Structures are given as structure tokens and as C-alpha cells.
Amino acid sequence: MSWFPQYRSSKFRHVYGKAASKENCYDCIPITRSVHDNHFCAVNPRFIAVVTECAGGGAFLVIPVNQTGKLDPHYPRVCGHKGNVLDIKWNPFNDFVIASCSEDTSVKVWNIPHHVLTKNITHAQKELLGHARRVGLIEWHPTASNILFSTGYDYKVMIWNLDTKESVVQVPVKTISFHTDVILSMSFNTDGSLLATACRDRKIRILDPRAGTLVQEASNKSHRVNKVLFLGDMKKLISTGTSRWNNRQIALWDQDDLSVPLLEEDVDGSSGLLFPFYDSDTHMLYVLGKGDGNIRYYEISLEKPYLNYLMEYRSPLPQKGIGTMPKRGLDVSSCEIFRFYKLIPVKSLIEPVSMIVPRRSESYQEDIYPLTAGVQPALTAQEWLNGLNKGPVLMSLRPGSVILNSPLEATEPVPYQNGPETTEKPSRIQEKWGHWKAEERGPEDKKVGLTNGFDAFECPPPKTENELLQVFYRQQEEIRRLREALIQRDVQIKQLELEIKNIPTDTGRF
């Protein structure tokens, strides 16, 4: 009887971490000394924000992403809080709006100027006053614009609608107050209809935030939870915490049944908190420990064993906090699929670490960059509050492609870097799907199969806006490939013409 080893094929099997060079780091940053278990850093494609140490209140820095190197000690700050800043988050739909929460029980929303800061910012665009004790966490809604969630040491979760004219808002649109202890973590599902929380009472809860009702609750004595994350559309949750023997642990849960975890895996015996980060595009989970410099990464699958260990990035420099770049800010030319910004207080340094898929080709790798969440909200604040649910508006990461305002407003052509602009629009594609008939096509058109495996004449028409976008991008890719094939044929024709001209001279020698 022979034994066949089981090998698991994965395009992310050899992903490796690459730290930025010294000149591409951010030096002389007075990183906060707070012991609060938060990231203390927020990043978008334009700015990097980091909570700093200061006297007489709370402040944070907002630095342009391309402004690396040593920072001027007199660089302007955002310093309107009266207590230490505990959390900061960029608006996912506006790169110039950031929210912060503090020990002074307030949440503030700031407008960052488009130019480089020349003086301190002390006046916030909006101030949210509703919590009775310090506010420890804030989260923006993933698909609805101007909806902000906050939670504090008063054990309450408050939902704020920022689509108001008032600069000071004292009454939230909803208050959820059935938690019995401090909330340590919050996470939304893909369309923002459910909210998962991890509480200090060791329970994981799934809530319906608009109704304020409890959907699921988990209480496992063998797993003391600290952080919890929804795993995109997989209907699963991942949590990090400690086991009964105080080992750091990862647990996987079924969204519909939180009675028993699907998987519990011990990581190590260190004492630092584990920060989980999930990439729904690649189904990869990254786990970083507070106080150590390593980054472990796994691939999540729907079948057992669910959690597949890939590799570990090792560094001797311990991180206090961490920031992550959105997918639209990555360098796709180097096959970068994730980027961390490590806060290293022992060196007053912020070090970017890129996670890279090793590929020889320098062209755009479509298989590792599927359509991802863009900068356009899918819903207004009032639509979401009225009960509508909608997934994120997707965009392509292909270099040169235009970020569409919304699937219904895709009226601009999408030029590509490797070819001239095309004037085809998604609306025209939909017309073709509805009006092309078999008798209108010639016999040659019926036999043509596209090189990327996508046949526009045999596949069913797109039913959703995102499917329409995918059809559009595929047709653009096919046009580019056909252009390259035409160029190669032109070169071959010229070579044949030269060979034909040289035939009389060659035959005259014999």
C-alpha cells in the first residue's frame, strides 16, 4: 500500500515580507506611550496618521505618505482633545477626513487640508458628545457614508449620523447598551448589516446595529477573546485571545452558530496582544503580536482544516501599534498584496513592511488583484438607517484604470497603461448584451473564442452591477491582447516582406 503525501496548491504559498529601506521610513516620530490596546496608526493612500506623546491633552500627527525620512520636531499636529487620544480612523470614502476619540469622552471629526500642514489644527469639523466615560474605539461603516460607530468605558455602542449641519452633536441616532463590560473590538460584515464585538466579559456578540438586538452570543471558557473579525463573505469570524493555559490563541467561529468554535489553534506562549488583519480579496489572515516584531500569515479556506499556515515574517524590532494601507494604495507593479506600518517606539520609527507575491512577470497580475472595495459609498447615511443593505462598490486596481464614481455612473472610458484609450462604456456593453442576435453575427464571429476564456456570445448576460463591471474589464483586457497580437503580426509581415525581397539575390548566386 503506497502513501501519497497531500500537497496544497496556493498562489500565496511563497508570500514574503519586505521591510522598507531606512530612507523610506518615517523617523523621529514621538509615538504615544499609552498602554491602551489599539493600533494608534491609520493610513490611506495620501496620509499616515499616528497618535503622539504630548503634554496637556491629546494629539496626533498627519504626515503625507511620500514625506519619508526625519520629521521636523516642530511639525504641526492635530491637537483639539483635552485627554489622550485612544483611537483614530480615516473615512474610507474621503481621504481628507479623519475621526478620533479620546479620554475626554468626546469623538471628533477633522478635515485635513489638501496642502501640507503649516500650523496646528485645533478646531474639529464635528464634535460628538454622548459618552459618559472615555471613548476607546471608533469604526466607520464600510458601505454607508457618514455613519460612525463609537464605544467607550460606559459599555455603550453609539451610532452617529454625520449628515447634519450642527458642529456639535449630543444625541446619537442609536445607543446599544446591553454589554456588561468594556468592549475590546468591533468588526462589520461586508455590507455592514451586522456588527461583531469582543467584550472583556470573554463573550463574542453579533448584533443588528439598527435594531439594537442581539443575534448571536458566544461564551467559551477555554478561549478568552480580545479581538474579533468578520471574514468577508465566508460567514465566519476569527478571534484572537488566550487559552486556558495563557497561550496566545486563534479561534475560528461559524457566524450562524457561536456555541463551539470550529477551530482553536495555539500560537505561542508570549503575553502580548494579537492583532488580526484579514484580506477578503486574497482570503489571507495576518496576525501580529504587540511587543514582538513577527508577522504570521495564514490562508483561510471553507473546508477543513480552515486555517492553513503559510509563513512568518521575522524582525527584531518590536511594534507597539500597526497601520494598514487600503488596497487602492498598494504598488501592484511589484505584486504587493498588503502593507503594514509598524510603530517602533524604541527607535521613534514607523517602518513600512510590504507583503509580496514573488512573480517574474512585470505585467499586471489579475489573479491576485480581483475587484476590490473602492472609494464610492454604496449607500447614503439615511438609506442605511432606513434599512437598506448593499455591498461595497468595487473598483479595479489595474494601473491607469479610472476609479468609477458608481456602477450606475460609469460614463468615463477606462484607459489602460499598456494601450491607447478606448471609448467603450459599460452602458454600451449592456446594450450589446440585450440587442445582439445570432443571425446578426457572421459565421466567423460565432467560431471566435476569446483568449482569456471569456466568450461574450455564450455566457449569460450580467445580472448585477458588479458583474457588468467585470464584463467591462474583461473586454478591455481582450482588446489590449488583440492589439498586442496585431502588432506581432505586423512585425512578422515585415520580416516576410524582407525575406521575399532577398530571394532573387540569393538565387542569382547559384
Automatic annotation (TrEMBL):
SMART domains for this protein: DUF1899, DUF1900, WD40
Domain of life: Eukaryota
Domain DUF1899: 5-69
Record carries keyword Repeat: yes
Keyword field: Actin-binding, Coiled coil, Repeat, WD repeat
A GO molecular-function annotation: actin filament binding
Pfam families registered for this protein in UniProt: DUF1899, WD40, WD40_4
WD repeats: 78-112, 128-170, 176-217
Cross-referenced PANTHER family: CORONIN (PTHR10856), CORONIN-2A (PTHR10856:SF2)
UniProt family annotation: Belongs to the WD repeat coronin family.
Protein name: Coronin
Organism of derivation: Eublepharis macularius
